[in-house]
């Protein structure tokens, strides 16, 4: 009698990733090609408003009465080891990355990442991607859930994620690492 036959799964390559149609978001996580549809309006609105709220005061050189000091990018491709992932937002402190490189994929881990979770992506964002961000020493991570209307802020301490704070509904908050300015997270949610 023969035993079960197992076949080794081929690791996804970058060629596999670029062959994915443009209407999907494609990532390589733990050697597996992972695709998801483009986000629905609650996700898109939250991402747009987060970018608007952070961009003006922070995505600039420091000075001029604004905090500045960051490069903030929407859906950058991060090439972290064998993983190729696309967070909703990522930010690099300008003192660590003085010049934004002209590249398709960033190999320098960001200092901050924001994932706007959806029912389809939540498990991957909160599981596999959080582990990658910790492994790569990303200092801060936000999980934004536009359906639950919540903001969870994580800080990396000793290779583990610590919940720094949680917020909901229409709170006005000073979320790290952007605590130099108050944000009204109620702007991020689609009206019911």
Write a structural description.
- The chain has one domain: tt1808, chain A, CATH 3.90.1570.10.
- It has helices at 14-18, 41-58, 122-135, and strands at 24-29, 32-37, 70-74, 77-80, 83-85, 89-93, 105-106, 112-116, 140-145, 150-157, 160-168, 172-173, 183-184.
- Mean pLDDT is 94; it is low at 3-7.
- The strands form four sheets. The protein has a six-stranded mixed sheet, with helices on both faces. The protein has a three-stranded mixed sheet with strand order 5-4-7, with no helix packed on it. Strands 1-2 form a two-stranded antiparallel ribbon.
- It is globular, with a radius of gyration of 18 Å.
- It is α+β, with helices and mostly antiparallel strands and 192 residues long.
Using brief descriptors, characterize the structure shown.
3-stranded mixed β-sheet; 33% strand; 13 strands; alpha+beta; 6-stranded mixed β-sheet; 3 helices; disordered N terminus
């Amino acid at each position: 009698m023969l035993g079960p036959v197992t076949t080794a799964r081929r690791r996804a390559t970058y060629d596999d990733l670029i062959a994915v149609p443009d209407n999907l978001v494609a990532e390589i996580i733990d050697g597996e090609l992972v695709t998801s549809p483009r986000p629905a309006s609650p996700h898109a609105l939250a991402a747009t408003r987060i970018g608007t709220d952070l961009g003006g005061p922070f995505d600039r050189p420091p000075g001029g009465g604004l905090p500045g000091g960051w490069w903030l990018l929407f859906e950058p491709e991060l090439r972290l080891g064998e993983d190729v992932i696309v967070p909703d937002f990522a930010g690099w402190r300008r003192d660590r990355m003085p010049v934004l490189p002209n590249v398709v994929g960033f190999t320098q881990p960001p200092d901050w990442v924001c994932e706007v979770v959806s029912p389809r992506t939540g498990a991957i964002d909160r599981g596999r991607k959080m582990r990658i961000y910790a492994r790569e020493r990303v200092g801060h991570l936000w999980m934004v859930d536009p359906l639950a209307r919540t903001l969870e802020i994580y800080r990396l301490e000793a290779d583990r994620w610590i919940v720094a704070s949680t917020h909901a509904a229409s709170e006005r908050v000073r979320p790290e690492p952007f605590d130099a300015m108050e944000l009204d997270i109620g702007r991020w949610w689609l009206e019911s």
